[in-house]
Design goal:
mainly alpha
Length: about 80
């Protein structure tokens, strides 16, 4: 299970960075305002944290909504 969680965290990190820079780049603070997720949390996710930080599914859903995408886009392999 740990390997699966690790894989998902790296996908989330990479996909969030890509989506935030697609079309019109968006800053952490702007996504925080749109999603209700703190800019600090967004920064930690994007930096590919060391595994001591878990992201709740509702956070993924909020980030997706703030980006205007389906949550699955944040978790699928590119």
């Amino acid at each position: 299970m740990a390997a699966q969680t690790s894989s998902l965290t790296f996908r989330l990190s990479g996909n969030l960075r890509v989506l935030m820079n697609k079309n019109r780049p968006i800053k952490n603070i702007e996504l925080a305002e749109k999603s209700g997720v703190s800019a600090n949390t967004i920064s930690r996710i994007k930096s590919g944290w060391d595994g001591n930080f878990q992201v709740e599914l509702n956070t993924v859903e909020k980030l997706a909504k703030g980006q205007g995408v389906d949550p699955i886009e944040l978790l699928t392999e590119a």
